[in-house]
Amino acid sequence: MSGVDTLAGVPAVEPGTAGPPCAYARLRSENPVIRTQLPNGETAWLLSRYADVRAAFADPRLERPLLSAWPPRDGDTAPPPCLPTFLEMTGAHHERVRRAVLPLFGRRRLEPVRPRIRAMAEELIDTMVAESVDGTADLVASYVEPLPLRVLCETTGLPHEDRDIYLPHTLTLLGASGVPMAEVLAALYALQDYAAALIDRKEQEDGGEDHIRLLLAQSRSPGSDLTRDDVVSFVVTMLMAGYKTTMQHTGNALLALLTHPGALRRLRAEPSGIGTAVEELLRYVPLMNAINILVATEDFTLHGKHIRAGDAVVPVPASANRDPAAFADPDRLDLSRSPNAHVAFGHGPHACTGGHLTRLQLATAIEVLLERLPGIELAVPVDSIRWDESTPLRAPAQLPVRW
């Protein structure tokens, strides 16, 4: 790494919260580009301001490295190559794959899925209520945890019954910045092997038009730019990005609503505002408080700091979404905030492909919950809630509620 800044650690998240830590406010003001030490011991340039984070995601001089290739190692210590996920694809490769995948997650394509997502949410709520003997339950176990996985499996064609095979590997990869590289690589290769075997099964079975089958059919079309390996990458990407992050954000979003009863009442009285509320929850909750590693492909200077080719750069959406230069009163939950140009899904060519599905799922989860359980509230003091802090994306491990 270059520069003479004092090496600092990534600001720690306060226990029992999702963040972002107050330290980001100081960094935005005093050190918007600072050399920092990551949980795995590597160093990187941390970007905390909204304008810099947004620009970094779209900057062609910054590329996301392969999980198997960063930190870089030479010679015999270099791991065997792996397929890139969508976030790691570059140039023409990324463009042709994105062209094939993006229509599957567009608003028009997802609209027919809305009734099915609603039916799944209603079924989970009905089961939770039926199994409760005293009008209380754990919302995470009964609703927040199962819904995103069912939606993901329903839309993409992932087998729900295989969840005990692939979910442990996805959890390892989500904590990659603080997990030994050997474990990260083992999980990555295991998911890649699982995806390849799943595609073999799909090719031999008759089925509906799930996303995996649609992409496979496209890859077999004469003259198609899509390859079978690209479909394998699609499966791995969905496993890494489509479940746990959505689950954890949903838990944090519902906790935010439950701890702002006035806002919750207004939303219940005016459900037409749920779409706007979802955008604010995406901004307010630090969905991407994880480490987003980018690597500079050439030298450049930012706020007087000399970033050199090969340096790692870490834009922090959790900090950017609380930047007062971009959002008025940014630490206040304002469910009517508009416009709301948050960067929860990143920005630029690598913005999250599944953003519309995440929005639809969260909006439906809130809508059904408020319709079926209008009197829902926390059943315990908020400071007694147990948190899942096993990955950088922290979330409530339990949400005891009553209705």
Furnish the topology, listing elements before pairings:
Layout: E1 8-9, H1 23-30, E2 33-37, E3 43-47, H2 50-58, E4 62-63, H3 91-101, H4 107-110, H5 114-131, E5 136-138, H6 139-144, H7 146-156, H8 163-174, H9 181-204, H10 211-219, H11 228-241, H12 244-258, H13 261-269, H14 274-284, E6 294-296, E7 300-302, E8 305-307, E9 312-315, H15 317-320, H16 355-372, E10 377-378, E11 387-388, E12 395-396, E13 400-402
Parallel strand pairs: 1-2, 3-9
Antiparallel strand pairs: 2-3, 4-6, 5-13, 6-9, 7-8, 10-13, 11-12
Helix pairs in contact: 5-7, 5-16, 8-9, 9-11, 10-11, 14-16
Question: How does this model look, in words?
Answer:
It is a single chain. The chain is an alpha+beta fold. It has a single domain, classed as Cytochrome P450 (Cytochrome p450, Orthogonal Bundle), CATH 1.10.630.10. 45% of the residues lie in helices and 10% in strands. The chain is built from 16 helices and 13 strands. The protein has helices at residues 23-30, 50-58, 91-101, 107-110, 114-131, 139-144, 146-156, 163-174, 181-204, 211-219, 228-241, 244-258, 261-269, 274-284, 317-320, 355-372, and strands spanning 8-9, 33-37, 43-47, 62-63, 136-138, 294-296, 300-302, 305-307, 312-315, 377-378, 387-388, 395-396, 400-402. The strands form four sheets. It has a six-stranded mixed sheet. Helix 5 (114-131) packs across helix 16 (355-372), helix 9 (181-204) crosses helix 11 and helix 10 (211-219) runs antiparallel to helix 11 (228-241). The protein is globular and about 60 Å long. The model has no long low-confidence stretch (mean pLDDT 90).
